[in-house]
Amino acid sequence: MDKNITSRDGTPLAYESAGRGSTIVLVSGAMSTGATVAPLAAPLSERFRVVVYDRRGRGASGDTAPYTVEREVEDLAALIEAVGGEAALYGVSSGGALALRAAASGLPVRHVAVYETPYAMSEEDLAERARYTEQLTAALAEGRRGDAVELFLRLTGLGEAVIQGARQSPMWAGMESMAPSLAHDDAVMGDGSVPRKLLASIGVPVLSIAGDASPAWMREAARAIAESVPQGTYRTLEGQTHMVEPDVLAPVLAEFFAR
How confident is the model at residue 2 (pLDDT cuts 50, 70, 90)? Predict the structure, then answer.
């Protein structure tokens, strides 16, 4: 990240941009930084100015306590102001929930696209989210960062053997360093349910996308978002999972953002 701005509460935020044209800000999900979504910026920057940034608490950005979701919306407000005063937003996973909240808050956003924002679609899943929040809060309060990462990986559906293998991998230290930001994403997701009242207040076009090789509940959640937004559209991408291929996703986003 080669540029910095300061958010309203004094938190430094690192970002970079590429390309020319109308601006798109890419919002990463849990356990990720701007670098995670940078591969998507490359194809989009052929037609747009694309901005990637490190959300607070990760990468080269700061993290001023206490955390609230409103502070992350203020981060996006500061970023949009710095890059021209208006932008479209793309958010992946929990980053999609943040992008939707930003649009609902009245930020100068002209379009929003989200990919597989993981809202819970059953009472059982909502109960699981509540347990996750409780256990995550305890683990972070007690400094058990590794346990916090494990909780998140289980929530995503990874098996125990895979999780224990990850613990032995060179990337584990980096994952532990980002563990506190898991609380940020948990807060952005609220109780895990589809925030239909909030979504109904969004006055700009929203494209909600899912991969057709992802679990059915992911597609149900993506459809629920589109159905809850006045100008919502739902789309699936053939053969894609939660780890969507940038070269498959980029043309779909470019078509939507060019409208």
Answer: confident
Asked if 204 and 111 touch (Cβ cutoff 8 Å), the reply is yes
Residue where a domain stops, chosen among 134, 159, 186:
186
Contact in structure between 100 and 199 (CB atoms under 8 Å) = yes
Rounded CA gap, 73 and 53, in Å?
13
Q: What share of the chain is helix, strand, coil (3-state, %, to 5)?
A: 45, 20, 35
Provide the domain limits for residue 147: 123-186
Rounded to whole angstroms, how far apart are CA atoms 136 and 142? 10
| 58 plus 77 within the same structural domain | yes
- CATH number, residue 83: 3.40.50.1820
pLDDT in tens, 62-84: 999 999 999 999 999 999 999 99
Q: ∠ at Cα 14 (10, 18), nearest 5°?
A: 140
Query: Between these two residues, 158 and 135, which has the higher pLDDT value?
Result: 135
169-178: b (≥16 Cβ within 10 Å) or e: eeeeeebbeb
Do both 71 and 138 map to the same domain?
A: no
Looking at residue 119, its amino acid is Y
Tokens linked to 26: 């890419």
Q: Which residues is 14 bridged to in the sheet?
A: 4
